[in-house]
Amino acid sequence: MRKIIYSSFISVIIIFISIVIYLSIVGVETDKFNKQISIELKKIDKNLSSELKSIKIILNPFELKFKIKTYGLKLKNKNKVIELENIQTKISIDSYLNNEFILTDLDISTKPIKIKELISFIRTFKKDPELYVLEKFIKKGYFIADIALEFDSDGKIKNNYSIKGIIRDSQINFLNEYSLSNINFLFDINNKNFNFKDISLSFNNIKLLSKKINVKKLQNDLFFEGEFSNKDTNINKEFIKKIINFDLSKIDIKNIELETNNNFSFFLNKKYKINDLKIFS
Known about the structure:
alpha+beta, 16-stranded antiparallel sheet
């Protein structure tokens, strides 16, 4: 009798461990939370809807939580659509067993998204004039990012968000006079700081490189600091006159071959006025 009880106990333990391992590695697919996720997304914006496939649930036995992950998600707002690679969140085992779902955090990985389409989508629920201007200036480019969000009890996004990613092959034109093209960089953004690194771009066909540029949000201003360099650049005097408004017509110079290393800093106020500009070259 003891052997039967012992064998049964061992069998139950093995089955339990096998189930935990399976749920922790493979998980199970379900559509149980599709409706709840759509409801939680509408708390961000009432017009925001989603097109979800089945959701995979993976157990985290150390945190006593389930990780809920879906692939191929489409977010829709009015007539705009954004496709995401995947989204994932966590729910306690107790909440799962009680059929409760409260969105407390969300991790989003995007597919390559055209920047103009992304800005156009954001503008459907955020009517900032800066977004309108930015959408007009940007001609092309792609955005790829991992986004981490947390929500309060009212479903609003907390200020401790994190956005990390990359911008590829972007182009910005300003009033048909200044052109930034072949823009590529990595970014790491939170509520207080914008960090950019491994930057390369062409400014009116002049190639510029930068290891890092940091932007810090202050009470009334944005503080910019960073460095940039260029190598073997040919600049004619017409370009110099346009950029720095300095007339070289009385100086016998046709072209300048330039190589520089520069550090800079400045403040930008809410009226987009630059103050305290410093450049060390």
